[in-house]
TrEMBL record:
Residues 1-59, 87-163 are annotated as: Disordered. Residues 55-124 bind DNA. InterPro entries: HMG_box_dom, HMG_box_dom_sf, HMGB_plant. It is found in: Nucleus. Residues 146-163 have a biased composition (Acidic residues). One of its GO terms (cellular component) is nucleus. This is HMG box domain-containing protein. Residues 55-124 form the HMG box domain. Residues 37-47 have a biased composition (Basic residues). GO terms for molecular function: DNA binding. It comes from the Eukaryota. Keywords: DNA-binding, Nucleus. It holds the Pfam family HMG_box.
DNA sequence: GACCTGATTGTTAGG
DNA sequence: CCTAACAATCAGGTC
């Protein structure tokens, strides 16, 4: 009983149009509700776009924490096989974490965003020069971003005196 | 064999 | 200002 077309890019029912928004503002809890009704969460459901270098959104602090959490969770629950379990456990744990604990994760997320901005710049550039799409391949290793040297300074300045 | 779904929160960009 | 959607993961489920 497949709810929608198996291969189709998640075709939602007309209900979505009937009830696009029903909850109040602020609480994204409704989103969960929507996922059940419309289920438009993340997945691969793009109509096919031509993106030279898809600038995927940087993982939020929660995701950064989750990445590590997943490993730990698996170690403690090798039998478990539900992604949702990690999500739930991670979500609760995340809220349980102190701001100081999330600080390092947020810092990482912030860095991710910086990189994302850079990628977006390139992405925007490509989009602008649609004429060069032909040369894009041969030229890509040349122009691109000029400052691509090894400038990796992992500065970990954490002054956790928040508490 | 291939593609989608679930669940968590945060961030991001557009209207 | 607010809304909608998407970011990872991974195995199960369906065609």
């Amino acid at each position: 009983m497949r709810p929608t077309k198996g291969k189709g890019p998640v075709k939602k029912d007309t209900k979505e149009a009937l009830k696009p928004v029903e909850d109040k503002v602020g609480k994204r809890k409704a989103v969960s509700n929507v996922s059940k009704s419309s289920k438009r969460q993340a997945t691969k459901a793009k109509p096919a776009k031509k993106d030279p270098n898809k600038p995927k959104r940087p993982p939020s602090a929660f995701f950064v924490f989750l990445e590590e959490f997943r490993k730990t969770y698996k170690l403690e629950h090798p039998n478990n096989k539900a992604v949702s379990a990690v999500g739930k456990a991670g979500g609760e744990k995340w809220k349980s974490l102190s701001p100081a604990e999330k600080a390092p994760y947020e810092a990482k997320a912030a860095k991710r965003k910086t990189e994302y901005e850079k990628v977006m710049t390139s992405y925007n550039k490509k989009q602008e020069s649609v004429d060069d799409e032909n040369d894009e391949e041969s030229d890509k290793s040349k122009s691109e971003v000029s400052g691509e040297d090894d400038e990796k300074s992992e500065e970990e300045d954490e002054d956790d005196d928040d508490e």
